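#struct-help
A.M.: can someone run this one for me? Single chain, 194 residues.
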Amino acid sequence: MFKKIAFTTMILSSLLLAESGVGLNINEEDLEIEGILDSRNLAALQTSSTIFQADINFLNNNEDTKLLGLGLGATNKLAGVEGVEITLGAKFMWSEIADESFTALPLMFKVRYTLPPLLYNIPPIGFEAKLLYAPKVLSFGESVTYNEYRVSADVEVIENVKIYTGWRNIHTRYVGIKPDLFNTSFYAGLKFAY
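D.P.: on it. Structure tokens below:
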């Protein structure tokens, strides 16, 4: 019990100290907390057009399955295409299914498109797609592979506050354990940026 309380406290304090944003998304069965620390907020790290992002997420799928991710990526605008940002990086993933633990270091690719300002004061709208993939060589212990696909859309309804919806598909494959589907679901949530 103490281990769970300490772990949850660590995750929540890390998210609350993040300078760039905190998000919470839910559906009927899942709760996910995510945080992003963006170098745009840290003047000492802004020496080029590349933006560095550290992110953390915790997905509580049910009593027996949990997923924690800690990642680092580099983001820049795609030359010649207004509103498109691409992020390349890696993310350490730890998941627990029943009594089995899973760790992997998948490579991460993310693309974000923000619509240009529209007429009639329509709030900013963005679309995002994210892919994480770890073959056997980047999966550790009894882990075989890790795959994650996400797509989402968001609308900034109040300055620095976004509502969003998306779909995720996460596969964690273990030696001798079937099936490998960890989570596939639609979700909706709220993000605060500061």
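A.M.: thanks! Residues 2-193 form a domain with the Lipocalin fold (CATH 2.40.128).
D.P.: also worth noting: The first helix runs from residue 2 to 17.
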